[in-house]
Amino acid sequence: MFSLPLSLLLLCQLLLADTVHAAQQCRLQLNTKLTAGGGDPGASTSAQTSAPSSGAPTGTGTAASASATPTPFKYGTTPIRGVNLGGWFVLEPWITPSIFNNTGNDAIVDEYTFGSMQNPATALSVLTNHWNTWITEQDFIDIAAAGLNHVRIPYGYWSVPLTSADTNGSTSVAPYTPGAWPYLLKALNWAQKHNIHVILDLHGAPGSQNGFDNSGQRTSPPEWAANPANVSRTVDTIAFVAANVGGMVDIIELLNEPAAFTSDAFAATLRQYWQDGYGAVRSVGATGNQVMIGDGFLGVDSWDNFLTYPSAQGVMMDYHEYQIFSVPELQRSFDDHINFACSSMADLTNFAKSNIWTVVGEWSTAVTDCTLWLNGRGVGARWDGTYFGPTTPLGSCAGWTGSSSNFSSDYKTFLRQYWEVQVTMGENVQGWVYWTWKAENSDDWSYQKGLEGGWIPQDPTSRLYPDICS
Where is there biased composition of kind Low complexity (predicted)? Predict the structure, then answer.
């Protein structure tokens, strides 16, 4: 059951009745005095806070109680074993295609157009139902039962109720639909109740940091780095999150998958943002939260000696591993995919040992790009030759995605091997977070379906192929 104090629950119900105005008042101010601070990569740290003090929330924000205090996590000693809650607070057409199909409008391709091309009341109604049902407390129970110790929760800047007191810039989120904040608070309480640690991941920034639909806005080129107001608002958003819910999360991820490869100017802006975002977290007193940055698609070696101890403490690198978004990658055999993962380990391990803790924060067992709309709504797959018009196909998509009832026994054997080798990669550094917990019709991407289908073990330490890289 939802375990926030009754006063907070009632407040959030009021917010849902008048999201545009009242949502600005739904906020927690939590105790950010932490049990342990960050540290150098050789030291074990815990970023978990003490339980916030109890109290009734008001419009200006007072302390609210957490439902439980999880055991502090020993980063750098115990591996992160986690799963992403994708598609919950940032829509992705391939994760929940029904939401997009039901609009009857093929031009609605992301959460931005979901808000701009529909009646606002319709968008809010659909999203409210989605926030209520896509992930529930039972999912947290199941995640804990699967031996996982972390969830990574992606969210968009439009869900954070900034007020004019929190930023010198705009507080408008139009055309996005606000209102997810109370559900995020509920999720943080469920996580604490079930002793699951949280990576809170800013997945969508103003102007889009990568132009992908997973940023909220499918656009080209991405505008985040081109407009200083976008960047400063992102820093203010991180400061708000650290101040208001830092006491209920372990890791604050500053931004997901920024496209630093697009230009030297973008890369320079990102480098400065990582520093400013880190400073924003620390400036509000959240000294024990780990702060996560990403490689910006430049590779981890591009961040050698960056935000390292002692100039910074408690910084982590988020590395994403997919082998399906180009034809040469798709042409790899099963063995080639496994060997590539094995060959990637040394570089990650060396970086983590000499720089900052590193986590494989996104990866999956998918070996094709066949999932409907994985490359964007209305965009086909490279695998079957339908990617942006007819191209030379590598094969049929039948049997590679959708329901696992159509997967061959050989394919399921490979899925288990591919899961194990990527877990091994993650546990050679500081851990791993699978993408994603669930998807409507893509079992090859779903941790939940992998557990049901048997290619993901209930015990994440179980190995059928312990010497897979030998």
Answer: 42-68
